[in-house]
Amino acid sequence: MFIDAADLSPADTYRLLVGSVVPRPIAWVTSGRDPVNLAPFSSFTWVSQHPAMLGFTVNRRANGRKDTIRNIEEHGEFVVNVADEAMLEALHASSEWMPPDVGEADRLGLALAPSRVIGIPGLADAPVRMECRYHSTTAFSPTGGEFVVGTVVGWTVRDDVVRIGSTGAAGIDTELLRPIGRLAGPRYTPLGEVVELPPVPGG
């Protein structure tokens, strides 16, 4: 089957994208103050190695821009929390729409922890928290696709998932982290089997 992108509606395009780009790492973002907003975004990546920069896609709701992007642009800071398998149900529940004056973390009974560098807290139980300063928003689509980029200014990593390499540098053991991946629809996937191959010369 060949599907011509020019013939697709925004909804049809979305269905094909979320079924093709899988699994996706989930950015569980805390933003804003009083209350702190918490929302999951199922498509994020790093866009620069040094300085470390992260980007994630924010689509519009029918009633306008999401609280997350408004908070980030107003306060200039946010935290990307990485959830593990034990946090799946809370992560999924946090995608429900709530009014701007309701803090999703409080509503779901999730503890917040202060950040070390920025003023926005992260999730206390998240095994990885990346504190970010807002860099830019790029709008790609009249239907609301906006790509938000932030510079990572600090990591908080749970001790049991940290691994110290031969050079003394800290890394994160993915198999111990047990991150959650997003699929199409309200479906998720655990890490699954990890296959390690020999390094490729010059790769």
Automatic annotation (TrEMBL):
Record bears the keyword Flavoprotein: yes
InterPro entries, sorted: Flavin_Rdtase-like_dom (IPR002563), Split_barrel_FMN-bd (IPR012349)
Pfam families for this protein: Flavin_Reduct (PF01613)
Keyword Flavoprotein: yes
Source organism superkingdom: Bacteria
Coiled-coil intervals: none
Cofactor names: FMN
Transmembrane spans: none
Keywords tagged on the record: Flavoprotein, FMN
Region forming the signal peptide: none
Similarity annotation: Belongs to the flavoredoxin family.
Record's protein name: Conserved protein/domain typically associated with flavoprotein oxygenase, DIM6/NTAB family
Species assigned in the record: Microbacterium testaceum (strain StLB037)
